[in-house]
Amino acid sequence: MASSSELGCVYAALILADDGVDVTDEKISTLLKAANVEFEPFWPGLFANALAGKDVKDMVANIGSASAAPAGAAPAGDAPAAGDAPAAAKKEEPEEESDDDMDGFSLFD
Q1: Could you tell me which of 66, 50, 53, 60 has the C-alpha nearest to residue 18?
Q2: Residue 91 pLDDT greater than 80, yes or no
Q3: 7: Cα within 13 Å, side-chain hemisphere
Q4: Calpha distance 61→58 (Å, rounded)
Q5: How far apart are CA 109 and CA 97, in angstroms?
Q6: Cα-based torsion angle of the residue sequence 56, 17, 21, 54 in order, rounded to the nearest 10 degrees
Q7: At 99, which helix (H) or strand (E)?
Q8: Number of Cβ atoms within 10 Å of the Cβ of 48
Q9: pLDDT-derived band of residue 98, with 50, 70 and 90 as boundaries?
C-alpha cells in the first residue's frame, strides 16, 4: 500500500496538471506543506522527474486504453501481404494443460 507521502505527491501532481502548471519538485513540496502532509524530501523530486515531459491529463484520460493501443496498431511496413493471410489463419493454438493429476479435487466440494 502506498504511504501518505506517495499519495500526497500523486494528488499534488494531479492538482498541478489540472491547473495547467508544470509539475516540479518545488511545486509539489509547496502543495504538500500547505496540506500539512509529512513527506520524505526525495518524494517530490522523484515524482517530478518521473512526470517530466509527460502530459499527465492525457495519461489519466487514457488509463484503460494505454495497454490495448500498441497491440492493435502495427506499422504499415510490417503488414502481411495479401497472399500471406491464409498462413496466418492456420496458426496452431497451444494445447491446454491436462488436469489429470487433479483427480478427486474440486474447488467447490
Answers
A1: 60
A2: no
A3: 7
A4: 5
A5: 22
A6: -10
A7: none
A8: 21
A9: low
What is the per-residue pLDDT across 5-14, written as a single tens digit (0 to 9) for each?
Answer: 889 999 999 9
- Most confident range (mean pLDDT) of 21-25, 55-59, 83-87 is 21-25
Amino acid type, 85: A
Residues constituting the chain: 109
Amino acid at 16: L
Cα torsion 79, 81, 85, 87 to 10°: value is -100
- H helices present in the chain, as ranges: 4-18, 25-34, 42-51, 56-61, 69-72, 85-89
